[in-house]
Amino acid sequence: MSLEPRSTAPARHAPCAVPPNVLERIIRNGTTEQRDWALSTLSLDATARLTRTHNAAVALARPRRRPAPAPAAIGPRRTIADAEGREILPGVTVRTEGAAAVEDVAVNEAYDGLGATFDFFWSTYARNSIDDEGLPLLATVHYGDHYDNAFWDGQQMVFGDGDGELFNRFTVSLDIIGHELAHGVTEDEAGLAYLNQPGALNESVSDVFGSLVKQHKLDQKAEDADWLIGGGLLAPGVQGVALRSMKAPGTAFDDPVLGKDDQPDHMSRYVYTSADNGGVHINSGIPNKAFYNVATAFGGHAWEKAGKIWYETLRSPVLRTNASFRSFASITVTQARTLFGSDGAKTVQEGWRAVGVRV
């Protein structure tokens, strides 16, 4: 069975798993083949940016409905398609909701990852899929030739197979799947601008919920989690453990080809740049560290207190699309006070102050 192709043009996205500054380093430092793969990936990423932005704008403009389906009707509706190495979406349908596992491990990983993300948002925050209206979840695997990325394009998830030398297949990392789907949640609730500090918050919120999806699946407490984003994604021989570390920003990798993880963990090291939409994948390390501070200070399951505060902040009507770190932090403190009293507010406030954001 084949779904009708949406487009023969490159896929559309702005946020993606591997940030552009890392791909640019591969182009500078890698072998001829690695450079070609990274250049192709970066080209696809850049070409499709405007279309994905359009998809997000159209979605935000639609009237918001909040139907209340019967609890028995709530559950994921997953479809996994295979692009078969091409750049046509969505591709050939290979697994649908309730169907048995297939021989293709990437198909099964995508299916399970979508399910784990749906289950996380529903069981923890009673959110019915990405849009809270039961949106069906579609993913395409085996996209492109040695495509070194994964992304949410405003309508579906797309996974490359990696190049096998620097990156493994992108379905291998549950937190990456959760991260990309969380971009859809942010688009639906807050529409944080993908530029400078609001863009870094956009990326950080996805890291927060990507990590929480994995922690929820593994039933981990905050103190037991690895707090890595993209664990298992780096191929053998690459000097690193993941794409990012929320616990220790700036330490995830230090490799001759990928370069060094350049995420700051404090406002005193904030990176002012015009690259990467104003450093959205770089400066997200600061709010990431703040969330880690808050989650570990509360203890227990991070989604119960810290995650709940961040989720309600994302849904807050006073959160602006151009929110700064400080304004976002201020709302988290307000939400913490509402949910967990003055002690909760103090815990959140101290978590932000530790990274140089005073509220």
Give the helices and strands, then pairings.
Layout: H1 20-29, H2 32-47, H3 49-61, E1 78-82, E2 92-96, H4 105-125, E3 137-141, E4 150-152, E5 157-159, H5 174-189, H6 196-218, E6 228-229, E7 244-245, E8 254-255, E9 259-260, H7 276-279, H8 285-298, H9 306-315, H10 325-353
Parallel strand pairs: 1-3, 3-5
Antiparallel strand pairs: 1-2, 4-5, 6-7, 8-9
Helix pairs in contact: 1-2, 4-5, 4-6, 5-6, 6-8, 8-10, 9-10
Commentary on this structure:
Helix content is 43%, strand content 8%. The N and C termini lie far apart (54 Å). A hairpin with a 3-residue loop joins β8 (254-255) and β9. It has ten helices and nine strands. The chain has helices spanning 20-29, 32-47, 49-61, 105-125, 174-189, 196-218, 276-279, 285-298, 306-315, 325-353, and strands spanning 78-82, 92-96, 137-141, 150-152, 157-159, 228-229, 244-245, 254-255, 259-260. The protein folds into two domains: 20-189, Elastase, domain 1; 196-353, Neutral Protease, domain 2, CATH 1.10.390. The relative contact order is 0.12. The strands form three sheets. The protein has a five-stranded mixed sheet, with helices on one face. A two-stranded antiparallel ribbon has the order 6-7. A two-stranded antiparallel sheet has the order 8-9. α6 (196-218) packs parallel to α8. It is α/β, with parallel strands linked by helices and 359 residues long. Keywords: Hydrolase, Metal-binding, Metalloprotease, Protease, Secreted, Zinc. One of its GO terms (molecular function) is metalloendopeptidase activity. The active site is at residues 180, 281. Residues 190-357 form the Peptidase M4 C-terminal domain. InterPro entries: Metalloprotease_M4, Peptidase_M4, Peptidase_M4/M1_CTD_sf, Peptidase_M4_C_domain, Peptidase_M4_domain.
